[in-house]
Write a structure and sequence with these properties.
- This protein is of the alpha/beta class.
- It has a four-stranded parallel beta sheet, with helices on both faces. The protein has a two-stranded parallel ribbon with strand order 2-3.
- The longest helix has about 30 residues.
């Protein structure tokens, strides 16, 4: 199966004031979606398999704009509610988003907190199903914020495998269910 070469346009899409990224330089294999799925079914870890992303098509952009106009206010209210609850429960929270899905959510929570006058640090790091969290990145976040509670943020749920991997990576630290 063919391997895809990276494109020259690999610009970072998140402003550095929104998130500090803790990802190790790696040699990922760029593969097609079909090849990636076949490799995963064959037992290979998905952690080094990437599919290239292209700019959204006009149809995808229209679908996004439509979804945003229908759901943006509701999603904004949910992010504001989450932010308010985090600030109510924790005095000095530090957001640790799970790359990639949690990163935009963490950025949104940080922006809302900043608008309300709170500086909530936000870091993103990797976690790989079945392998665990990036322990070196997590140690760096803990070194930077030794007295602050870490709030792990993900952007979606599936079958719970990432949550189980997080719990296994942090025995005794992660409750049996998400608190909010």
């Amino acid at each position: 199966m063919p391997t895809i070469r990276p494109t020259a346009d690999l610009a970072h899409t998140l402003p550095p004031q929104d998130v500090r990224v803790h990802l190790r330089a790696a040699a990922p294999r760029l593969v097609t979606v079909a090849h990636k799925e076949a490799l995963i079914r064959a037992g290979e870890s998905y952690g080094t398999l990437l599919t290239p992303e292209t700019r959204p098509s006009d149809a995808q952009t229209r679908a996004y704009q439509d979804a945003l106009s229908r759901n943006g206010e509701r999603v904004g209210a949910l992010i504001a509610g989450l932010t308010a609850e985090l600030l109510r429960v924790y005095r000095t929270p530090v957001l640790v988003s799970l790359a990639r899905g949690g990163t935009p959510v963490g950025c949104a929570v940080r922006r809302v907190a900043r608008r309300w006058g709170f500086d909530v640090p936000h870091h993103t790091l990797s976690i790989i199903r079945g392998l665990g969290i990036d322990a070196a990145a997590l140690a760096e976040v803990r070194r930077l914020h030794p007295a602050s509670p870490l709030i792990f943020v993900d952007g979606w749920t599936g079958k719970g495998s990432i949550f189980q991997t997080l719990r296994a990576s942090l025995p005794g630290e992660v409750p049996p269910a998400w608190p909010c």
